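note to self — DONT lose this again. spent like an hour looking for the file last time. sequence + predicted structure for the chain T wanted, 61 res
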Amino acid sequence: MHKRPQAWRYLIALFVAFWLIFATILIVNDFPFFIISIALTTTALLAVLIIALAWAFQNNW
């Protein structure tokens, strides 16, 4: 019997890649530090929420 791949593991890689690219774009385009910190914190929190929901869904929690 083959176990289904867990989506939350793929989501972690996807969100890390997105966050790093987004951070690079914000820093290179010389956004103010306050805007960068708010944008990165918001995207990180939303990513953690989505990953937690995916984990809970796949583990029937």
